[in-house]
Each structure stands twice: as C-alpha cells, then as structure tokens.
Amino acid sequence: MATGKKARNMGKTAKGKAKEVTGKAVGNESLEAKGRAEQAVGDAKQAAQKAKDAVKH
Q: Do 1 and 56 contact (CB within 8 A), yes or no?
C-alpha cells in the first residue's frame, strides 16, 4: 500500500473515531454519527487499497 495513502486513510479513520467519542461524551448524536461515517469511509478506502495492492503482487 502506498505509504501516503495508507497514512491518509488511517488518519481519516482516527479522526472519525475521535469525532464519535467526542459526540458520545457531549451527547451530540449528529457528531457521533458523522464520526462513524468517517470511520467507515477510511476503512473502506483502506480495504480498497489493500485489494489493489494484492492484485499488483
């Protein structure tokens, strides 16, 4: 996996987790949902990149 893309995708997942935890802590359901969605996007992009790398090798 390209290091830059991997870091970006992991960052998106971590940022989403932080939003989710913050949303839970303050009782903001909208922020919590946005965090979960952002995590899903980051995870999906990581999976796609891994699949792409597997095809290359």
A: no
Distance CA 39, CA 37 (A): 5
Q: Which alpha helices (DSSP H) does the chain contain, by range?
A: 3-26, 29-56
Tokens 């995708």 locate to 9
Residues 6 or more apart in contact with residue 20 via CB below 8 angstroms: 31, 32, 35, 36, 39
Please write the tens of the pLDDT for every residue from 4-36: 888 888 999 999 999 999 999 999 999 999 999
Could you tell me how many residues make up the chain?
Answer: 57
The torsion region of residue 2 among left (phi > 0), alpha (psi -120 to 50) and beta comes to beta
Q: What pLDDT sits at residue 2?
A: 67
